[in-house]
Write a structure and sequence with these properties.
Elements (H helix, E strand, L loop, with lengths): L15 H9 L3 E7 L2 E6 H8 L11 H10 L6 E4 L3 H12 L4 H14 L7 E4 L3 H16 L2 H12 L4
Parallel strand pairs: 3-4
Antiparallel strand pairs: 1-2
């Protein structure tokens, strides 16, 4: 957990032992070990938050995206990248506060993930947060308006139930 992260808001933080127990019980929809840390998306959380017609947005790496697409081919994957490698290094320095072995590993992981661009349908270049969020909002609305996701509404209208 980083100093500015809030448990239950940013992430749910659990011990490695609890993670392994959940993993053994098949309780993750996707998971990965990255730089010696375990990350996963709980099946329970996905079920709880995706019901009632809501659309779930996951912030995951390319390993997670691959696993999600395998299980949910209809999922839309959006690749968010920095505007340049220099900016990526600057952001990593700001995040990690110093350049060390782990920061270098994170840079290499990010460079490797760039080669995974084929997993994604859309691209957002994160020059600044406000514009990146605006782009994400547009893609979200388009996803929610897909005919396949709304066919039941049309059928109800045809049957006179709306």
């Amino acid at each position: 957990m980083r100093k500015n992260e809030v448990p239950g808001k940013d992430y749910h933080f659990i011990s490695e032992r609890e993670f392994q127990k959940m993993l053994g019980g098949g309780q993750f929809i996707e998971w990965a070990e990255v730089h010696g840390h375990y990350y996963g998306t709980s099946c329970k959380e996905v079920r709880a938050k995706s019901g009632k017609g809501r659309t779930l947005v996951l912030d995951i790496d390319s390993q997670g995206a691959r696993n999600i697409k395998r299980q949910f081919p209809e999922a839309m994957a959006i690749f968010v990248i920095p505007p340049s490698l220099a900016e990526l290094k600057k952001r990593l320095r700001k995040r990690e506060m110093k350049w060390n072995k782990e920061t270098q590993q994170r840079l290499q992981t990010a460079l490797n993930e760039l080669n995974e661009y084929g997993l994604y349908e859309y691209l957002i270049v994160n020059h600044d947060l406000e514009n990146a969020f605006s782009d994400l909002s547009c893609l979200y609305v388009a996803f929610c308006r897909q005919m396949a996701r709304n066919e039941d509404k049309i059928k109800k209208l045809i049957r006179g139930r709306i």
